[in-house]
Amino acid sequence: MRQSVVPVLTVVGALFVVWYAAAVWLNAPWAHDKAKRSGEVLSVSALVADTWAQDKPKLPAPHQVAIELWETTVEKKITSKRSLVYHSWVTLSATILGFVLGTGLGTLLAVGIVFNRTMDMSVMPWVIASQTIPILAIAPMIIVVLNAVGISGLLPKAMISMYLSFFPVVVGMVKGLRSPDAMQLDQMRTWNASASQTFWRLRLPSSMPYLFTSLKIGMAASLVGAIVGELPTGAIAGLGARLLAGSYYGQTIQIWSALIMAAALAAALVGIIGILQRVTLKRMGMAQ
Amino acid sequence: MANELNKLRQTQAPSPATSVIRAQNLDLTFQTNDGPVHALKDVSLDIGAGDFVSFIGPSGCGKTTFLRVMADLEQPTGGTVTVNGVSPEEARRARAYGYVFQAAGLYPWRTIGGNIRLPLEIMGYSRADQDARVARVLELVELDGFEKKYPWQLSGGMQQRASIARALAFDADILLMDEPFGALDEIVRDHLNEQLLKLWDRTGKTIAFVTHSIPEAVYLSTKIVVMSPRPGRITDVIDSPLPRDRPLDIRDTPEFLEVAHRVREGLRAGHGDD
């Protein structure tokens, strides 16, 4: 743990240096234009100071994003429409619901595929085909269709999350449920075990390492799905709405703070699954 | 305990001379991508109740396949085989045998006790009965006190003993063992062989045992079946003249060496056409 601190901080430091340098480079034309119009001559230090403090920079400097994040999370009431915590919660609830639905659907499909030869032959191609359709193309249709039948709000977004997150679960669980080797299955046969006994006592526990790996990918995909689902709703609430509103009004700082928030959210969610994975597999004696 | 074991022996050991497993003109051909493989050809054998029969031969001689046919894990393409007077499938459904594989195959997420309980849960034994049986078989394989341990906390030899205990836990009077000690070192193997003989003597089970070690086959068996490959067939069946009670140093007696010599001759004869 200790040995990794220095390398990690070095990389983070290097990223900040690149970021600040890129901010100067990308925002300099605007600063020069401004100076030319007012007839000033910019010194190097004035140029740098300007590029790191513009209202609508092409690339905001890290501290601008940090200040925006601070103001919209800590200093705003979470009930406020301008609070990033409020918007994160809107996205998070759709993410979690979609993730739960996707995990359920994925597991059910995987069980069907493993136990039913017809499903094995017929379902898998559709599952794969479903993921070749760009989510940006299908998301508005889901929203519109569900709206037409009177369903709006959380569920349509969760459906899009589910659409993205069930796929890794199907693929991982099919592999996991098939992971017991021939000897273990023969052994069950010698005891004349039924298919359901084999499933609950052998296949399902054996699939746990595969399930957790799938859940991590599914969770990240679910968050992407929730954000994409917020884009066509007319940008009312959620991180996706913040991204869209930010791009309408050229609020790059707002866009970046929403992006950072989404990344932190994804990291936290995947991290929680990672902890669950470690605890569960250790208790099951399957930790690698 | 002794009383209980005596009772066990009386109920489990059928009268001698009845044949428990009977194979007649057994044929098995695998269809592979490289053409048909003749795994068993014209194999006939009788295994009596309470026998300890070893199958020995080079790899590819069909000894494991033969065992798997008895267990209904492979289907013969010709001939007949009966287990307890019925087809292998019926015998399997009636849970007539316990099968011990080369690897212990214990579930890492279950304790040793939980692993032994596994077939009992599947077969629907009551909770109290399960507890009693787990305790009894753990004592039989000298693993008492390890019930709550996890497989990774045990050595390879102890894991294999636990897997034997698992095969003994339910009321099967046949034990099919496929090179159970193949992956263990010589010293552990000697110890387990000695234990297995004791266990066989105490329970009166009929044991079919696949091995490729000549001393192991001769030391353990009342009957040694020598097999040879391409096609898999029986070349010799040796009824051991050794007494039932066998200390480890019986392996230095002339009788033992004579049987071992005959097995070696049988193996060499089977290899003659190579």
UniProtKB/TrEMBL annotation, chain A:
The keyword Cell membrane applies. Signal peptide: none annotated. PROSITE patterns: ABC_TM1 (PS50928). Keywords: Cell membrane, Membrane, Transmembrane, Transmembrane helix, Transport. Its main location: membrane. GO terms for biological process: transmembrane transport. The keyword Transport applies. It is a multi-pass membrane protein. It is found in: Cell membrane. Pfam families: BPD_transp_1 (PF00528). Residues 84-277 form the ABC transmembrane type-1 domain. The chain crosses the membrane at residues 6-28, 89-115, 217-241, 253-276. GO terms for cellular component: plasma membrane. Belongs to the binding-protein-dependent transport system permease family. This is ABC transporter permease. It comes from Sulfitobacter sabulilitoris.
TrEMBL record, chain B:
It comes from Sulfitobacter sabulilitoris. Belongs to the ABC transporter superfamily. Residues 21-250 form the ABC transporter domain. PROSITE patterns: ABC_TRANSPORTER_1, ABC_TRANSPORTER_2. Keywords: ATP-binding, Nucleotide-binding, Transport. GO terms for molecular function: ATP binding; ATP hydrolysis activity. This is ABC transporter ATP-binding protein. It holds the Pfam family ABC_tran.
